[in-house]
Amino acid sequence: MSYGALSHIGISAQQSYGTATASWDYLPIISESLVTEIEQLEEEGMRARFESGAVHEGLITVAGDIVFEPHPILMGHFLRGVTGQASGTLTNSVYIWEFIPRQSDFSTNCAVPPFALQIYRDNGSAWQFTDSLVNQLSIDISGGTITKATASLLCRVSSLMTKTSPSFPSGNPWNWSQASLSLAGTANGDIESLSFVINNNIEGLAMLDNTRVHGKHLRTGYRESNFSGNMDFASQTEYNKFRIGSEQAIKITITGDTTATSYNNQLVIDIPQAKYSSFPVNISGAGRISVGFDGAAKYNTTSAYAVRFSLTNTRATYAN
Hints:
The protein is mostly beta strands and 320 residues long. It has one domain (7-43, 53-313). Helix content is 5%, strand content 48%. The chain is built from 2 helices and 21 strands. The longest helix has 9 residues, at 75-83. The protein starts with 7 loop residues before the first strand and ends in a 7-residue tail after the last strand.
């Protein structure tokens, strides 16, 4: 009998593609869906029979999601993973980290920084996934709930390892009551939920390198930064912005509890140029009218980014 409650996940930043590390940070998770798949290659040659040809093992791939409640310390791993870089400044005994999507690949073999991943599923050995890349990261804030995040991963090498003993950091995840939001620089209290997703559009490439795993993980298209949510239809202000195609800044600030060192863990998502792509206003019954909207963050030439994440905590490095 194996239990998810007795399982654990560890992450460790790699310095290079292809070289695993073991400086583990342990992440409390809600669920994970990383699956190892082995492509089956069937011979096509006909041999005077109705049965198909022999089957050979082909490309080995690993992909899936990790769903978790963002922790003020551990969240930095995933922000660096999806943006490609991290810059920290020590201020009054705490670090203010900035994560701005980089305009170059991490290396010639991978678009974003790789990390090693350890998953112990409460039975036997742990799984080790080397060259794990954050292809997509979503952050979901909804009224009355704890904030959630989903990291969609592409991993290159799957193997087994001796499990380690986890030690989880102290500190609480963020919840909805710690979040505030502004539109065009003005506080807005009509948003009920908001999700932000950044997608790198990375794909694994099978190379002629005498291996059965992807030799590179590179981009197949533009990086996309999108948002969606639900809004109380209190006025036509935001609908009018959608109607005329105007763009505006969106800023989400989540300020956590004050710690023993008298500072607040904080996450800020700064979108200087956002545009609605849909804003359907409909009557679904006799009750309150709300609007489910979608939009995209566009690159702002003045700020030189489409989105910027700021994280305040006591972590000194995210590159191990």
